[in-house]
Automatic annotation (TrEMBL):
Keywords: Cell membrane, Membrane, Transmembrane, Transmembrane helix, Transport. This is Multidrug effflux MFS transporter. Residues 9-393 form the Major facilitator superfamily (MFS) profile domain. The chain crosses the membrane at residues 47-67, 74-94, 100-121, 133-155, 161-183, 213-231, 251-271, 283-302, 308-329, 341-363, 369-389. GO terms for molecular function: sodium:proton antiporter activity; xenobiotic transmembrane transporter activity. InterPro entries: Efflux_drug-R_Bcr/CmlA (IPR004812), MFS (IPR011701), MFS_dom (IPR020846), MFS_trans_sf (IPR036259).
Length: 412
């Protein structure tokens, strides 16, 4: 593979992975305008975000077996077409109920990009390069929070919030063309894999029985759901409590995205000296400590607008390190069932994201405490699961080693 081909593949896989982040981030500055236009509340508009996250969580479980059975590209085309049509539906809706439904359908289509991108990484690149490739993908994905809310803010002011979904439809059309002409096929279709419910559930169970997958998929899912608390709560915190404009909110969101981008490249350097396991544990300890300060300071009223932004920056700096390493460790044990493993991993992440988003909305009390409190809970919970899971992995590894030891060797 030439450097040019490597760059093109990473770029396409990165854009596939950005479909959902763009769909989430771009319309955040439009929340007040959407609520006013559809004669509803921001809390109701937040439910459209929750519906999107639920759709991603469920949809990924459907695409995993399809990607393993029919190859990577056919399900990819189908999902992206559904997403494109649903985006047009969002742009033409006149009620909050229809918007929520269209967002659900949009998620069910667009989530194929997340699963397919991760499965293709496992198909195309050697195992020892996966963590570094995921770091590069995270860099591409991390750019989206820098530009998506800014574009969304200006588009809302200039053309109305409906234009956001038309822009998303146009971006998806360009991605479809690039996939057809430039992206390798990846793993070939496997007709021996059955799509009957019993067989599909058996594949998922085979993946879930692997302690390494279960540990790091749960850790990655819970840890990476912390930003969803921020995404769900920040429009209300900054635009309603601190009274910033749509454009200003977009710039705040873009600034905080830097906290995710920089560590993704630091991860590539750290991997030369430390293991993914070591990096994840250190980062979660760091985020837990920062989170405690964030919650305590917010509760006590220590931080104004800029103080809160600074503390959020420190907390989010850990996200660019946890995600890529957790993904690499989750997928490493699998070849044949990489699609199912990627689907389960993605489902965990978006399922927890949906739960976190809904929790922030339910705990809404006109302060930033629900947002930062849920973020901190995610970091602390992920750390506890990691410590317990590492013991389970070590126990299984020791047990398997003992079973493989010849009797004569054991006696000696």
């Amino acid at each position: 593979m030439t450097r040019r081909q490597h760059f093109i593949i990473i770029l396409i896989l990165g854009t596939l992975s950005t479909i959902s982040p763009f769909s989430i981030d771009m319309y955040l500055p439009g929340f007040p305008a959407i609520a006013q236009s559809l004669h509803t509340t921001i809390a109701q508009v937040q439910l459209s975000l929750t519906a999107y996250l639920i759709g991603i969580s469920v949809g990924q479980l459907l695409y995993g077996p399809l990607l393993d059975r029919y190859g990577r590209k056919l399900p990819l085309y189908a999902g992206l077409v559904i997403y494109l049509l649903a985006s047009i539906g969002c742009a033409t809706t006149t009620s909050i109920e229809t918007l929520i439904l269209m967002r659900l359908l949009q998620a069910l289509g667009g989530c194929v990009g997340l699963v397919a991108a991760q499965a293709l990484v496992r198909d195309i690149f050697p195992v020892n390069e996966i963590a570094q490739v995921f770091s590069l993908l995270t860099l591409v994905v991390a750019v989206s929070p820098m530009i998506a809310p800014t574009i969304g803010g200006y588009a809302t002011v200039a053309f109305g919030w409906h234009s956001i979904f038309l822009i998303l439809a146009g971006i998806t059309a360009l991605i479809l063309v690039s996939i057809y002409f430039l992206l390798p096929d990846g793993k070939a279709p496997d007709p021996s894999l059955s799509l009957r419910p019993k067989a599909v559930l058996g594949s998922f169970w085979m993946v879930l029985k692997q302690p390494q997958f279960l540990t790091y998929a749960l850790v990655g899912g819970i840890a990476t759901s912390a930003p969803f608390a921020y995404i769900s709560g920040s429009p209300d915190v900054f635009m309603n409590i601190y009274k910033v404009s749509e454009q200003e909110y977009g710039w705040i969101f873009a600034f905080l995205a830097i906290a995710i981008i920089a560590p993704t490249q630091l991860n590539r350097i750290l991997l030369k000296r430390f293991t993914s396991e070591q990096i994840i544990q250190t980062v979660l300890i760091y985020q837990s400590l920062v989170g405690v300060l964030l919650v305590g300071g917010t509760w006590a009223g220590w931080y104004g607008q800029y103080g809160l932004i600074g503390m959020l920056f420190l907390f989010l700096a850990g996200q660019g390190l946890t995600g890529p390493n957790a993904s690499a460790l989750s997928l490493a044990p699998f070849v044949r069932h990489a699609g199912s493993a990627a689907a389960l991993m993605g489902s965990f992440r978006m399922g927890f994201g949906a739960l976190v988003s809904a929790t922030v909305s339910l705990l809404h009390n006109n302060t930033a405490v629900p947002m930062v409190g849920v973020m901190t809970f995610c970091a602390v919970s992920a750390l506890l699961i990691l410590l317990i899971g590492q013991r389970a992995i070590q126990y299984r590894s020791t047990r398997e080693t003992d079973l493989e030891t010849p009797l004569s060797e054991a006696i000696l």
